Amino acid sequence: xxxxxxxxxxxxxxxxxxxxxxxxxxxxxxxxxxxxxxxxxxxxxxxxxxxxxxxxxxxxxxxxxxxxxxxxxxxxxxxxxxxxxxxxxxxxxxxxxxxxxxxxxxxxxxxxxxxxxxxxxxxxxxxxxxxxxxxxxxxxxxxxxxxxxxxxxxxxxxxxxxxxxxxxxxxxxxxxxxxxxxxxxxxxxxxxxxxxxxxxxxxxxxxxxxxxxxxxxxxxxxxxxxxxxxxxxxxxxxxxxxxxxxxxxxxxxxxxxxxxxxxxxxxxxxxxxxxxxxxxxxxxxxxxxxxxxxxxxxxxxxxx
Length: 304
Description:
The protein has 304 residues and is α/β, with parallel strands linked by helices. It has helices at residues 7-16, 38-42, 57-64, 89-97, 113-117, 131-141, 154-176, 181-201, 212-223, 228-237, 242-247, 254-268, 274-285, 289-297, and strands at residues 2-3, 34-35, 47-50, 73-76, 104-108, 122-127, 146-151.
């Protein structure tokens, strides 16, 4: 059962088996229902999938907490860190829904929505501190084209998913300025190093960042034209302003808001994240993309 904020979207899913605004031309499964009533959507569900913009999670989840079934597993698809609190999405879920960490799972990987909706092969990570819950969720979303792997490292999967959006903004800016594959590969690789440093500060498993929720998600998001964050960065690199892009009311580029909270989180724990710092300077402080790359290249040399 899918919850849509707008009644016309819910009606289109039910009647035409399509979501005309977000996945035009893609035929949706016959067993997918849709409603504009969030309480109806979650009633009796074993798994509730949370796929709203990360900065709106708290308010949206508060709306349906009273209708959640006992023991429900709350599944986060969100890739961000909450502004102000610097909490990861699983932490926000535990707080708002008043559930233990074992009832919260995270799904993260190279999972561009349009390709999955078209039935193209993809793999992902299902992370939960409760191995049995992770296995149940794994079984629920396994198909002939979608292959989930379980993992207990919720922290690493969440941080990998959040930071990759920021690195994709930087990589998109480089693309928009006309730079080639060396530049983009350098940003992706050093971006992975930033992500791993932040993860280490929170006790994440280093192997997570070489897996699907780390490197896999990072590569897909930084290189695909289907990636909203990469595309947003590319338009910034071509000279568009933040105000112009936000006025277009396109789908959410999570990195635009979360880059600031991720940098706040890093600074709280003395983690060096130079690419994230420069993306914040471009997106929120008026620095140009060209200045961003110059600042990154002029940093003091050091051992890799």
